[in-house]
Write a structure and sequence with these properties.
- With 285 residues, this protein is an alpha/beta fold.
- It has 2 domains: 5-29 and 64-155, Dihydroxyacetone kinase, domain 1 (Rossmann fold), CATH 3.40.50; 160-284, Hypothetical Protein Tm841, Chain: A,domain 3 (2-Layer Sandwich), CATH 3.30.1180.10.
- The protein is built from 10 helices and 13 strands.
- A 6-stranded mixed beta sheet has the order 10-9-8-13-11-12, sandwiched between helices. The protein has a 4-stranded parallel beta sheet with strand order 2-1-6-7, with helices on both faces. A 3-stranded antiparallel beta sheet has the order 4-3-5, with helices on one face.
- The protein starts with a strand and ends with a strand.
């Protein structure tokens, strides 16, 4: 039995089998498509959405869950435990952390016996997701809330994302371009590489082809953890499974992957990255 409940939101893009195995509570983001309001990974699924997104002339709007959404999740977990860790993407790119903090204050009135810790991971996608996964595993292993929070905080500075795409148009249109804005006007045959530092999207370089971009990703990972360094790595993509398989083969030649996840981004994240995105989210072990 878990000692603590683990809650996050759909943008963590955690594979469904792990959500079930590790008893992770997921709160969906919202996607506003025309007059429709859709719940991420509840009312809208990946394959159909990315097929539509590739032809869209205007991006749908996205919104983080509100305090009431998180409070409902806390109430559900309060039936199983008196401790909850609520784990969220970078607060610079989303209001989820702030909403969860408001929900924590609301919970003081209606759930006075529930101890809640809310964490800003300063990361996105499966970098955020890895922290949720490891926290849930720790909870199932019997660790208490303080130990789980310490585990997550230890992961924040060493968990990295590197990704590439055919275009940064989607990040730019969605207002999530961060410090990589100057790459938007790159020629079509230039593949930009981006990452995240201190919770903000940053440029990491460029390549002249996808394979060139993948080589650079592997080089950056190897520089970070050493040749044959041990990592847990998620290969993430948006409607680009065959591409991310190529990247996986190249990474596994140069690093020791002690755990591998293959994961497609949720539709709400995919709005900002665009279809064709491929990359890694990893940390050393």
């Amino acid at each position: 039995m878990s000692t603590a409940g683990v809650l996050t939101d759909s943008c963590a893009s955690i594979p469904e089998r792990l959500i079930e195995e590790l008893n992770i509570k997921i709160v969906p983001y919202y996607l506003h498509k025309g007059k429709e309001t859709l719940r991420d990974l509840v009312d809208v699924q990946r394959e159909e959405f990315f097929r539509w997104l590739a032809t869209a002339k205007e991006l749908p709007k996205t919104a983080n869950p509100g305090p009431g959404d998180y409070l409902a999740g806390f109430k559900e977990l309060a039936q199983q435990t008196q401790e909850v860790v609520s784990i969220h993407m970078t607060s610079i790119g989303s209001g989820a952390y702030q909403s969860a903090m408001m929900a924590k204050e609301m919970a003081r009135e209606v759930l006075p016996d529930l101890h809640i810790e809310v964490i800003d991971t300063r990361n996105v996608a499966l970098s955020h997701g890895w922290m949720v996964i490891e926290a849930a595993r720790a909870a199932l292993a019997g660790h208490d809330l303080d130990e789980i929070v310490a585990l997550i905080k230890g992961m924040i500075p060493v968990t990295r994302m590197i990704q590439t795409a055919d275009t940064l148009r989607y990040l730019y249109m969605g207002g999530r371009i961060g410090k990589a804005q100057h790459l938007v006007g790159s020629l079509l045959n230039i593949k930009p590489l981006i990452g995240m530092e201190e919770g903000v999207i940053v440029p990491l370089g460029q390549a002249r082809s996808r394979l060139g971009a993948y080589r650079k990703i592997v080089e950056m990972m190897e520089k970070d953890v050493g040749h044959l360094g041990r990592v847990k790595v998620a290969f993430v993509h948006a409607a680009a499974l065959e591409e991310v398989k190529k990247l996986r083969a190249m990474v596994e030649e140069r690093l020791t992957c002690v755990e591998v996840l293959m994961a497609e981004l949720s539709p709400v994240l995919g709005v900002h990255t665009g279809p064709g995105t491929a990359g890694v989210c990893y940390f050393p072990v």
